[in-house]
């Protein structure tokens, strides 16, 4: 660049596209490349799931997979019915949801509507730290602390097993409370203050403002938080692997039975030395695909809900 | 409270029937509701306290230098002299590499999406949607990606580098989303001022926008790495579940990590293993707590209020 | 300035025909809308005695004394930051919602101290409603917006449909929305939304309606509709309005209070009441020089 004396007028020059800036192009190229990594990851996931799954269904009929009530790929009589895994997953997810939704939403309402600003500023980060505790820790807690407690307190003689779906579900519920609470609180805080004022000016009590204005106003955001929590519970591995066991021989009709879920089956199967391309090895991918489809649907729902919520207020 | 059912303006019309303001109605529902909400919050925090207290009490006897000086073992007879050293070094290797891989890629993606991309284009919107979706994919599915594609097809095997790549891809959405938020918080006026002085897009980004966004980005980066640090599920599929008795020394070493070693110890029936697991949990939580506090501190101290 | 001989608007006719006859005391020649002569009985609804309002350590308003008469429209005017909105919000204890806000002095409502310990702020807001600067309908249907107040205050309503219709008619909104009562209130225009907010306030039968710059977010046509409505409502309700628009104060109000910000000995700014009189007097022959300067546009 020409030397310019500060203050002196710059000689008139053409503003036509003269200078090329190759550096700029290279940098932009690099940035695009980085952004493509996430697309490549998705493609990688789909590809690594798809091919083994197709291979699996070449040997096991899809009907047997969907309707079979026994999942015993590692036994001598091999059966590939995914229902036991699905039911195990549903039990844990259901129990987790029943615990996490009231606790999470209640905590969120308190933080958003009742807590003083200072209290909220203190508690919200703690909640976020809580959401970051590794799930293996929750698993340990469930197995060695919650479950003995549960067995002690159990009213009937039909005690929960050493590993069971109920305790895994409880631990899972506790685990997703911070996630649900934090996201729901975000949604409630986004409800404009003017609506609260409007409601107060109509002689509402605090509870009425919270339950009739803030919660309905933030509803799609709250539902999105719940859906995301459910999706996390569905895809969580360590708690169930540790606390619910790996039994797969039949549909777990009761939550006090020990049983595998989709995720814990995958984790359990991968720990054995499975020969590559054996049917047993392929089961990991078939179940993985099922799990992926479930969580994909839930995430898509959650993204839609959040978008809908934003449309109302932005 | 008045129970008038008359049409509007009844008060104005009948001022004489105005009940006193001072009849403060007790509202038991209100009190109960607030108590219920406090109870919810209390339960959430009570579990946190119980969880930490339980781990500390249970692991108290094993919270000593053995933890990081000794190697893991699966033999009950040797467990008194065992620790988790290889898991600590393995974690350092894997997380260090993860940071080296996912931070540049994540931040570059965020810069592209926030500063360069025209988000009316379908491909950029797809990119965004893809990242949102990726953030919700279960971690074990990333393990499947690592197992099927990176370890077997690409052939990197069950090594430190495979684990680092998989964890990088796992937390990439977190890094991207946090970095984008940090970039978005930098006011438009700063960019306009820079462009008005004749700076190019990259000059503006590099000299003006990025420095202002660094605190927010580092908070996001730390939170992402602490998520990777606690993650066990994908590594179960990547050959980490063994009592490895040596420290990794290259990208292609076998490895184990703290969460995986904790899982390994929990599986063993003897109480000594459980104690060691609890001690390792305390160590893991201390590291995570330190990282999280650092993140919050950075956020509070350096974040500019525009 | 306004036209003092402006005709009563058409909406008034359609509305009044469906209303029960208003109390006879309220009937004053509507053409003299800004005449300023106190109308109705002389009963004082609200009385402020040496009112000081604080936000934390900061004193926003200092030493306000004024009385607000029944069935009058009282306008609070003044430059921004003069504390007029703060005073308005102290009249139905909306300031309670701001952490650190505190009112010293006495605000009485028919002789009852609004800030006495045993007074229930919810009951206060039941009698003294409020309409805000920006229309803030709930993201619910038009019907549910109106029904909200009666529901939360536990009014025993024999026929909610009827009550909703009455409130909408009273707010001169019925003809525009009668076929879409179940539709979202957010689909209405800004002016319609603001009239909905007024209808919503009327539905709980308050005695006083506070309005905080109700037209500042509206276009002139919507503004004129709201002004007509205010005038119509003043037959049955006591209205206090904060406005930054002097013409509006002159057009609609009976009495006007002029506030301004003053710097005290310690160099702190407080809002103060400078002059309070009939609107006619304030706008034609103010006693204070500062009022005159403001009215004539020389400052603020």
Automatic annotation (TrEMBL), chain A:
GO terms for molecular function: phosphate transmembrane transporter activity. It is found in: Cell membrane; Membrane. Pfam families: BPD_transp_1. GO terms for cellular component: plasma membrane. Residues 86-302 form the ABC transmembrane type-1 domain. The chain crosses the membrane at residues 26-51, 90-111, 123-146, 166-188, 209-230, 281-301. It comes from the Bacteria. Keywords: Cell membrane, Membrane, Phosphate transport, Transmembrane, Transmembrane helix, Transport. GO terms for biological process: phosphate ion transport. InterPro entries: MetI-like (IPR000515), MetI-like_sf (IPR035906), Phosphate_PstC (IPR011864). Its main location: membrane. It is a multi-pass membrane protein. Belongs to the binding-protein-dependent transport system permease family. CysTW subfamily. Part of the binding-protein-dependent transport system for phosphate; probably responsible for the translocation of the substrate across the membrane. This is Phosphate transport system permease protein. It comes from Micromonospora acroterricola.
UniProtKB/TrEMBL annotation, chain B:
The chain crosses the membrane at residues 31-57, 92-113, 134-154, 160-178, 228-246, 276-298. Keywords: Cell membrane, Membrane, Transmembrane, Transmembrane helix, Transport. It is a multi-pass membrane protein. Residues 88-295 form the ABC transmembrane type-1 domain. GO terms for cellular component: plasma membrane. Pfam families: BPD_transp_1. GO terms for biological process: phosphate ion transmembrane transport. Residues 1-23 are annotated as: Disordered. GO terms for molecular function: phosphate transmembrane transporter activity. CDD domains: TM_PBP2 (cd06261). It is found in: Cell membrane. Part of the binding-protein-dependent transport system for phosphate; probably responsible for the translocation of the substrate across the membrane. NCBIfam families: 3a0107s02c. Belongs to the binding-protein-dependent transport system permease family. CysTW subfamily. This is Phosphate transport system permease protein PstA.
């Amino acid at each position: 660049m020409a030397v310019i004396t500060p203050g002196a007028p710059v000689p008139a020059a053409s503003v036509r596209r003269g200078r090329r800036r190759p550096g700029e192009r290279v940098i932009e190229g690099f940035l695009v490349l980085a952004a493509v990594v996430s697309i490549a990851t998705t493609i990688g996931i789909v590809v690594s799931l798809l091919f083994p799954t197709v291979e699996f269904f070449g040997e096991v009929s899809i009907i047997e997979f969907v309707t079979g009530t026994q999942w015993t790929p590692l036994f001598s009589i091999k059966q590939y019915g995914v229902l036991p895994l699905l039911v195990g997953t549903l039990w844990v997810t259901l129990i987790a949801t029943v615990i996490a939704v009231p606790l999470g939403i209640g905590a969120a309402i308190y933080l958003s509507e009742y807590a003083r600003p200072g209290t909220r500023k203190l508690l919200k980060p703690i909640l976020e730290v809580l959401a970051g505790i590794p799930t293996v820790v929750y698993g340990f807690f469930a197995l060695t602390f919650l479950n003995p407690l549960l067995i002690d307190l159990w009213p009937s003689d039909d005690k929960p097993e050493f590993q069971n779906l109920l305790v895994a579900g409880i631990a899972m519920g506790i685990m997703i409370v911070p996630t649900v609470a934090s996201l729901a609180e975000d949604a409630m805080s986004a409800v404009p203050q003017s609506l609260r004022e409007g409601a107060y000016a109509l002689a509402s009590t605090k509870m009425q403002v919270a339950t009739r204005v803030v919660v309905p106003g933030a509803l799609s955001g709250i539902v999105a938080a719940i859906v995301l929590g459910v999706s996390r519970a569905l895809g969580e591995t360590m708690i169930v692997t540790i606390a619910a066991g790996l039994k797969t021989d039949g549909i777990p009709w009761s939550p006090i039975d020990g049983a595998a879920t989709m995720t814990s089956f995958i984790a359990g199967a991968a720990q054995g030395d499975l020969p590559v391309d054996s049917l047993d090895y392929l089961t990991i991918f078939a179940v993985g695909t099922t799990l992926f489809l479930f969580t994909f649907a839930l995430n898509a729902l959650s993204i839609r809900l959040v978008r809908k919520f934003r449309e109302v207020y932005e | 409270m008045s129970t008038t059912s008359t049409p509007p303006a009844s008060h104005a019309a009948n001022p004489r029937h105005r009940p006193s303001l001072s009849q403060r109605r007790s509202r038991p529902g209100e009190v109960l509701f607030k108590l219920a909400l406090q109870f919810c919050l209390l339960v959430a925090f009570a579990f946190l306290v119980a969880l930490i207290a339980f781990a500390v009490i249970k692991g108290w006897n094993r919270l000593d230098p053995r933890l990081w000086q000794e190697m893991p073992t699966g033999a009950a007879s040797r467990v008194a002299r065992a620790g988790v050293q290889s898991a600590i070094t393995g974690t350092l290797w894997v997380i260090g590499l993860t940071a080296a891989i996912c931070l540049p890629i994540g931040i570059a993606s965020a810069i592209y999406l926030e500063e360069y991309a025209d988000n009316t284009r379908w491909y950029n919107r797809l990119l965004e949607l893809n990242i949102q979706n990726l953030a919700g994919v279960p971690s074990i599915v990333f393990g499947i990606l690592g197992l099927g594609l990176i370890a077997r097809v690409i052939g990197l095997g069950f090594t430190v580098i495979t684990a680092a790549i998989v964890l990088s891809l796992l937390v990439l959405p977190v890094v991207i989303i946090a970095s984008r938020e940090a970039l978005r918080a930098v006011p438009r006026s700063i960019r306009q001022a820079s462009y008005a002085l004749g700076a190019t897009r990259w000059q503006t980004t590099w000299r003006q926008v990025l420095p202002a966004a660094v605190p927010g980005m580092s908070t996001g980066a730390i939170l992402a790495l602490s998520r990777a640090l606690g993650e066990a599920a994908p590594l179960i599929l990547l050959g980490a579940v063994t009592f490895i008795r040596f420290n990794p020394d290259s990208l292609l070493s076998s490895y184990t990590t703290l969460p995986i070693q904790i899982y390994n110890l929990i599986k063993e029936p003897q109480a000594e293993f459980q104690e060691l697991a609890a001690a390792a949990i305390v160590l893991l939580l201390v590291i995570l707590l330190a990282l999280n506090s650092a993140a919050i501190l950075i956020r509070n101290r350096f974040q500019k209020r525009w | 300035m306004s036209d003092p001989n402006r005709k009563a608007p058409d909406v008034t006719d359609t509305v009044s025909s469906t209303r029960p006859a208003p109390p006879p005391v309220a009937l004053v020649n509507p053409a003299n809308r800004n005449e300023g002569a106190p109308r109705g009985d002389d009963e004082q609804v609200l009385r402020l005695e040496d009112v000081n309002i604080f936000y934390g350590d900061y004193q926003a308003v200092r030493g306000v004394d004024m009385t607000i008469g029944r069935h009058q429209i009282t306008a609070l005017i003044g430059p921004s930051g003069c504390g007029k909105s703060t005073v308005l919000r102290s009249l139905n204890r909306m300031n309670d919602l701001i952490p650190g806000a505190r009112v010293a002095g006495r605000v009485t409502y028919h002789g009852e101290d609004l800030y006495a310990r045993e007074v229930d702020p919810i009951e206060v807001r039941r009698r003294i409603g409020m309409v805000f600067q920006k229309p803030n309908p709930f993201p619910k249907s038009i019907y549910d917006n109106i029904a909200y107040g009666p529901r939360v205050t536990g009014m025993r309503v024999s026929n909610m449909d009827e009550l909703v219709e009455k409130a909408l008619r009273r707010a001169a909104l019925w003809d525009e929305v009668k076929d879409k009562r179940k539709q979202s209130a957010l689909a209405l225009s800004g002016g319609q939304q603001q009239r909905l907010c007024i209808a919503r306030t009327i539905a709980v039968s308050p005695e006083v309606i506070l309005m905080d710059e109700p037209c500042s977010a509206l276009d002139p046509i919507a503004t004129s509709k709201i002004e007509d409505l205010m005038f119509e409502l003043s037959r049955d309700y006591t209205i206090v309005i904060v406005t930054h628009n002097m013409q509006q104060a002159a057009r609609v109000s009976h009495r006007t209070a002029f506030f301004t910000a003053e710097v005290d000995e310690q160099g702190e700014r407080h809002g103060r009441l400078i002059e309070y009189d009939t609107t006619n007097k304030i706008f034609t022959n103010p006693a204070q020089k500062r009022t005159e300067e403001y009215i004539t546009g020389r400052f603020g």
